[in-house]
Amino acid sequence: KAGVTQTPRYLIKTRGQQVTLSCSPISGHRSVSWYQQTPGQGLQFLFEYFSETQRNKGNFPGRFSGRQFSNSRSEMNVSTLELGDSALYLCASSSPGQSKNIQYFGAGTRLSVL
Amino acid sequence: GNSVTQMEGPVTLSEEAFLTINCTYTATGYPSLFWYVQYPGEGLQLLLKATKADDKGSNKGFEATYRKETTSFHLEKGSVQVSDSAVYFCALSAVTGNQFYFGTGTSLTVIP
């Protein structure tokens, strides 16, 4: 079974631009969560999608948004980029059932904002 | 609310030394508890988990016991190897919903 795939692996953008990150979950997984990882703040929860609906949301500004498609793939968008948005963005998927609480992570997308 | 407090790093050990990374949590009810490991340039990998009080999770020589009375889930390994060098994250999954709460991570370096 293929793991969680995130694309692209690396991105370089300039302030004010917008960016879209993609995440393909493990086949059969319907929940996708997004996290921002920075050296100073650690792992911070952005939001979770389940069956195309946002189910949980962290404490991030409205510039951060996401969506999930009918095939469970998810995208995350950041508009009007700021220097402080430079981070590793991690996506995790999970499945209902006995192992529903285990999140499986992708390798991440490293975003650098110049 | 839910939160995880993890031992600050970095931790540097010699090969074959004993490892303990402390983790305590605050949560309502009985959350599931996890340890994840992150190797350089990679995402997080599940190392072990425990879903109820007194459960012991174990994997690759690592162990952690879910202690409800002390709200702790300390990670231990009897003899670390150079290949164990990584960042370790303690996490809990809330009783309701699917949201995870992570500790700040503890960087471990094992020297030969």
Explain this structure.
- The complex is a heterodimer of chains A (114) and B (112).
- Chain A is mainly β and 114 residues long.
- Chain A is 0% helix and 53% strand.
- In chain A, β7 and β8 form a beta hairpin.
- Chain A is globular and about 40 Å long.
- The termini of chain A are far apart.
- The model of chain A has no long low-confidence stretch (mean pLDDT 92).
- Chain B is mainly beta and 112 residues long.
- Chain B contains no helices and twelve strands.
- Chain B starts with a strand and ends with a strand.
- At the A-B interface, β4, β5, β9 and β10 of A face β5, β6 and β11 of B.
Question: What is the total tally of β strands of chain A?
Answer: 11
How large, in whole angstroms, is the Cα Rg of chain B? 13 Å
Pair with the biggest interface: A-B, 24 and 22 residues
What is the β-strand count of chain B?
12
Helix content of chain A: under 10%
Q: Major β-sheet of chain A, in short? A: 7 strands, mixed
Low-confidence blocks of residues of chain A? none
Report, as a whole number of angstroms, the end-to-end distance of chain A.
37 Å
Secondary-structure element order of chain A, as H and E?
EEEEEEEEEEE
Name the helix and strand elements of chain B from N-terminus to C-terminus, one letter apiece.
Answer: EEEEEEEEEEEE
- Give the overall form of chain B: globular
Poorly predicted ranges of chain B (pLDDT <50, ≥5 residues)? none
Q: Please identify the structural class of chain A as seen in this structure.
A: mainly beta
Q: How many helix segments of chain A? A: 0
Whole-number average pLDDT of chain A? 92
